[in-house]
Amino acid sequence: MNGATLAGLLAGATRRLAQASATPRLDAEVLLAATLERSRAYLLAWPERVPTPARAARFRAWLERRLAGEPVAYILGRREFWSLELEVTPDTLIPRPETELLVELALARLPAGRPVPIADLGTGSGAIALALAAERPLARIVATDRSPAALAVARGNAGRLGIARIQFREGDWCAPLAGDRFDLIAANPPYVAAGDPRWRAGELRFEPPDALVSGADGLDAIRTLITQTPDHLTPDGWLLLEHGYDQGETVPALLRQRGFADVADHRDAAGVSRCACGRWPG
Question: Which residues pair with 167 in a beta bridge?
Fold first, then answer.
């Protein structure tokens, strides 16, 4: 592809990606725009331009990684979530648009203008905690993760975004909360069953298994959270959990069994059962 125009590079990459990606043209545009450090609109405005050999070589290298199935977010090292550009690495789950539902549900339960205490458990890249901090600037937020590498990414994202109001604590689920209580606890825990072959295939195979897989039925982490979090919720505090597409009846049932009230399940923009919420009566 040396000497090819932008239009030619896009056409060739799109053809090659057609068998490797559900969005071949989009992937090609995103990778080429990032190679040039330009917007995707630039590609359409200047299709006859020819990139330098160095940039063309970088695009070819990135294209080969995408053809091997590696997610675009890991190739570029970044992903947008809630209009925030976040660094992501193979140590963190890639933030997904459907997780923004968890942020929306949390904001609906968090009054603005008050220093409400919030916890984000298993924060990964920090996506949920950072989105909540951006929308509730007075909130006191604790974000936990058992992975030091993931916490380093989350801290770095907070620093780049200029958000200094989050305490990052290392540890498994509620262990780092040290007796603290919160008006709201949110978590996007692993919820894929160990026997489900999908996490070993496609793009998921590039993501950290500990952030995806949780026991034989995918519910081990969710059960732990439902058991532990009442000790760290204020009276009438909320627990919000993202879960798998086929867990929309099981997770609310577990919340009710533990004693949560006002339990409800919510669907994402695609109509898929995605998040369960419950209020702890105290």
Answer: 142
CATH entry 1.10.8.10 includes domain 6-69: yes
Domain 90-280 CATH assignment equals 3.40.50.150: yes
Q: For the chain, give every domain's residue range.
A: 6-69, 90-280
110 Cβ neighbours under 8 A, 6+ residues apart:
116, 118, 132, 136, 139, 183, 184
From CA 154, how far away is CA 157, in angstroms rounded? 5
- Gap between the Cα atoms of 270 and 179, Å rounded: 38
What pLDDT, in 10s, does the model give residues 11-52? Answer: 999 999 998 898 999 999 999 999 999 999 999 899 999 999
Look at the block and give the residue holding tokens 């994402």: 268
| Sign of the four-CA dihedral 176, 178, 180, 181 | positive
Whole-angstrom distance, CA of residue 90 vs CA of residue 4: 32
Model confidence over 175-193: pLDDT tens digits?
999 889 999 999 999 999 8
End-to-end CA distance of the chain: 64
What is the token pair recorded at 118?
């919030």
pTM: 0.91
Q: What does the alpha-carbon distance between residue 30 and residue 44 come to, in Å, rounded to a whole number?
A: 12
